[in-house]
Design goal:
- This protein is an alpha/beta fold.
- The chain has one domain (9-243): NAD(P)-binding Rossmann-like Domain (Rossmann fold), CATH 3.40.50.720.
- Helices cover 44% and strands 15% of the residues.
- It has 7 helices and 7 strands.
- The protein has helices at 18-29, 41-53, 68-82, 107-135, 155-175, 193-202, 220-231, and strands at residues 9-13, 33-38, 57-62, 87-90, 138-143, 180-187, 242-245.
- It has a 7-stranded parallel beta sheet with strand order 3-2-1-4-5-6-7, with helices on both faces.
- Strand 2 (33-38), helix 2 and strand 3 form a beta-alpha-beta unit.
- The chain starts with 8 loop residues before the first strand and ends in a 7-residue tail after the last strand.
- The structure holds nicotinamide-adenine-dinucleotide.
């Protein structure tokens, strides 16, 4: 590891599990001071303790990021603790087991999926951007999905991730002058509890073999490496971009 995030203050969401946990761990290894956020308190505390025992710096904030007051509290924790905020990595998300075809998905599932996967990113960006303006710039990385680029996933999830991609571009457009960058990542299947739930819903036990595709499931650490690059100053000329990380699946 290097120190490519040395002295940066970063909010990371979804740290109790999967991609969020891998991202917070990698950020801390790269020298960032991490405000680690999740709704699931036990998993969050365990992840933060693991980061600390590895010599990293992370503060746990138990919060539901679909609520504006929780988002304000998250950003306040960063500024109160460290006086600034440089990075926002939105790596939380949900995919409901009942989220299937449009005729079967309830309005309740659609609304909750949109609130957590899309509206929360709007609320967190709204709270974080004024602090990034004060800091003279910043980087926002939003977790989308290859589901946003096709139509095969759950109805609510697919629509919510399409919103993430568009929200990313509008934030990038409005804040390029402020040197605040905003990019999104569209992973294919990554080995996390969410992926295992999705496979169960689809009746899959493994990734179907297909030509032109790396023949395995991705690892959360591989996504965390891309988040880290986009969050870092090495990506200073990259904004409004959509990256796939799917072993080549969406290209064929
Ligand atoms: N795993 C995959 O195959 C895959 C593929 C494409 C996209 N993604 C996306 O990557 C992101 C992370 O997914 P994952 O696979 O790590 O999932 P995961 O289920 O392992 O972890 C998601 C975390 O988000 C937290 N969370 C959910 N709602 C929250 C809320 N309202 N407030 C705060 N925290 C909340 C959960 O408690 C959990 O710890 C999601 O946006 C997901 O849509 C994952």
């Amino acid at each position: 590891m290097s120190d490519r995030l040395a002295d940066k203050v970063a909010v990371v969401t979804g740290v109790a599990s999967g991609i969020g946990r891998a991202t917070a761990t990698r950020f801390a290894q790269e020298g960032a001071k991490v405000i680690a956020v999740d709704l699931a308190e036990e998993g969050l505390r365990e992840a933060v303790a693991a980061i600390a025992s590895d010599g990293g710096e992370a503060t746990a904030v138990v919060a539901d990021v679909s609520h504006a007051d929780d988002c304000a509290r998250i950003v306040e924790t960063a500024t109160r603790s460290y006086g600034r905020l440089d990075i926002l990595a939105n790596t939380h998300g949900i995919s409901d087991m009942g989220d299937t075809g449009i005729l079967n998905v309830t309005e309740e599932i659609f609304t909750r999926t949109w609130e957590v996967n899309t509206k929360a990113l709007f609320l967190l960006a709204k709270a974080a951007i004024p602090e990034m303006q004060r800091a003279g710039g910043g980087s926002i990385v939003n977790m989308s999905s290859v589901g946003a680029l096709s139509g095969g996933g759950g109805t609510a999830y697919t629509a919510s991730k399409g919103g993430v991609n568009a929200l990313t571009r509008t934030i990038a457009y409005r804040h390029a002058d402020d040197l605040i960058r905003c990019n999104c990542i569209c992973p294919g299947p990554i080995d996390t509890p969410m992926m295992h739930r999705s496979f169960e819903k689809l009746g899959l036990t493994d990734l179907p073999i297909a030509p032109g595709r790396v023949p395995r499931i991705g690892r959360p650490e591989e996504v965390a490496a891309l988040v880290t690059f986009l969050a870092s100053d090495e990506a200073a000329f990259i904004t409004g971009a959509t990256y796939t990380i799917d072993g080549g699946a969406s290209g064929h």
